[in-house]
Structures are given as structure tokens and as C-alpha cells.
Amino acid sequence: MPVVRDLRVLLRLRNFRRLLAVRILSQSADGVYQVALAAHVVFSPEKQASAGAIASAMAVLLLPYSLIGPFAGVLLDRWPRRQVFLYGNLLRSALACCTALLIIGSAPDWLFYASALCVTAVNRFVLAGLSAVLPRVVDRERLVLANSLSPTAGTLAATAGGGLAFVVRILLADSDAAVVLLGAALYLASAVASLSLASALLGPDPDGERLPLGKALAATAGGLMEGLRHLAERRTASRALAAMTVLRFCYGALTVMVLMLCRYAWTDSESDGLALLGLAVGVSGAGFFAAAVLTPWAAQRLGRFRWMVVCAGTAAVLVPALGLWFAPTPMLVAAFVLGLVTQGAKIATDTVVQMSVDDSFRGRAFSLYDVLFNVAFVAAAAAAALLLPSDGKSAALVTGVAVLYAAVAVTLAHWNRRGEVL
Predict the structure, then answer these.
(1) Residue ranges of domains in the chain
(2) Run means of pLDDT, 10 residues per run, the chain, 422 residues
(3) Which CATH architecture has domain 2-417?
(4) For 5, which of 99, 120, 155, 377 is 20 to 30 Å away at the CA?
(5) d(CA 421, CA 98)
(6) Are 51 and 392 in contact (CB under 8 A)?
(7) pTM for this model (two decimals)
(8) CA 3 → CA 223, 242, 284, 333, distances in Å?
């Protein structure tokens, strides 16, 4: 198969393999850490989480560090990106250990959230940097394939890490702190793996005289505006980002709904609900893997924007067909479909942004991309909090999400037909 042959060629690239190892270890730690937080906040027996409480937790964890995104972009275009991976993961390992101590000590919720916020704030630098440096280790002809393998491998690693966390949490009572410490160990391993990459390899390229750190931070607002103008001038990239933001909103709303269904509608115990949620995450991860295999072939034959049309249109049809039953089996099938179409659209969007944006702006572009992702997810959680009843069953939410998917498909098809995207 051509895809298998290309994958073999890609994996023979030494620096790509090393960068992939950094991503896999880092994102597997993310999966472990996020599941530990979710289990502690939502599935602890002493907590009765509502959709509003879940939305509030997401806002606390996501919105504040979304403000860091533009700062991360400006700094990623100035700092040695290899050092960001090294020190960022070391810092996250130390902060995760602090989170574990807070869980053991039954610290107040605000202190617990503050610690988690610090871990996820550093994550902005690492994830944005991983996307920004990919074109520096892969040639242009294989960039679509690299975008299929690398981010999807990271997502699968996060899913595997989350699955491991689910298993530990189910098998061991009161094990949230142990799970967090497992995440800390994986962050440390990612930091060590980054040392295999040469610091100069990952850039950024010199762009005139380097500003000292203080002046660079003072110039952040100007750098952000430059990044926004650069994206605005790249119509293809800006429209792909707009479409992907709406798709992320849809995915976020359905994620909160499934979480509530697992917690209250489908099971009678916290442990059974957590196990069912773990199964849903695993099925969605299988969809991510399918997207990694299918997207290079589909994007080559249809074009990136037509493939995004297919992804959004498929979701528009299958989400209400499967979701309105509010039953575990159809919803698990929907989880696979959503994993496939969401990751497929993201792979296409990543490639569009990378190919349309100059290297000296890629850090800012992907940081802004990340901000849009987080804001969309929090907005989706807030919308879900308004629409979801206590058991998570809401036909209005499922129907509304299907309409949004259809709108994205129609709009992208219109732009593509008029030649307004490349």
C-alpha cells in the first residue's frame, strides 16, 4: 500500500522519529494527567458534578491559559524550540508532583485548580512548538503524511495514557494521586527524549537582530497583531481555522453530553461510569487512528477542503441518527465517527496552516490556533450546561450540533466551488 510505504520512508527520518518520541511521551502524560483530573473532579463519590460544574471546571482550566497562547507564539518564534520541549516538560513534571501532593492533602478546590492550570499553561508552549517545528524535520512532499502520523500518534498516545489512567483508577481505590505521579514520570521521560534533538535544528530561523527577553515580552501585543494580519492575508489558512473552530465547538458539546450520560444515565456507580467513559475514549481514539490512515489518501484525491466537507457532512448526518437514541451502543459508534471526522479535518487544517504561513510566523499561528481550540471547547461546555438536563439527554443539543456540522460542510463547499480557497 502507498500509505504504508510512505510511512516507512517517514519513519526512516531520524529527526522525525526523535521528535515523534517527544510528542508521544508528552501527550501520553497529558492523557494520564487529564483523566486523573476528570476522575477527581467528576467521578469522586463525594462530588455530584452537574453540567454547569463541568463547564466551570473547563473554564478555569482552559480560558486563563488561552490568554497565554499569543505570548507562547511570540516566544516560540524567538526561543530555541528544543529548549522549550526540554524545560517545559521538566517544569510540568515538577508541577504534576505538586498536584499529587494537593490531592493527598485534600487541598481546597481553588488551589487544586491553580496547580492544574500551571501544568496546562506550560502545555501551550509544548504543543504549539511541536506543530511549528514539523516542517523542519520533514520535506514538503511528505508534510500531509507527517501531519497524519505525528499529531494523530500524539492523540493516540494521549488516549493510551488516559486508558492506563482509567485502569489504575478503577483497580485501585483513592488512586488519583498515584495516577498524577505516573503522568509526572512520563513528562520527565519526554524531557529526556528531547535531548536527542540538536537545538539548532528546530529553529526558529534568525529574523534580524534578536530582541532581549524583556523587549520581546513588551512587543508581544505587536507580535500578535502581526500574526493576525499574516493569517488574515492567507485566506486559505484563516478559513480553514474558522471551520475547524466550529467543528471543535461541536466536538466539545458532545463530549460534555457523553460525560454526563456516563456519569448519571447509563450506570448506577461511579466506577462503572468511569469504565464506560474510558471505553468511549478508546473508541474515539480508534477513530483518530482511522483518520490518520484515511486522510492522506482522501486529501490527495479530493483536496484538503473537499475532505473537510466530507468530514463535516458525515458528522451532520450520523450525529442525529446515532445520538438521538441516547443509548450506549449507538453513542459508541458515534464516538468512533466523531473521532475520525474531527481528526481528519484537523490533519487537513494543520497542513493548510503549515503550508500557508511563513516559518517566522508559525509559532504565533499555531498558538492562535490553539487559543481558538480552547475557547471553542469552553464555549461548547457553557452551551451544554444550558441545554443539558441532569441525566445528559438533550435532543436540542444533538440537533443543534448537527445543524452546525451541516453549515460548515455547506460553507466550505461554497468556498471551494467559487475558488476562494486553494
Answers:
(1) 2-417
(2) 66 89 93 83 64 71 66 72 92 93 81 82 82 84 78 82 84 79 95 90 69 65 75 87 94 90 80 80 87 88 91 96 94 94 92 84 78 86 85 92 96 79 51
(3) Up-down Bundle (1.20)
(4) 155
(5) 47
(6) yes
(7) 0.75
(8) 39, 29, 22, 25
- The grid cell for 179 is 495516577
Residue type, 318: L
Q: Which three cell numbers stand for residue 136?
A: 523542519
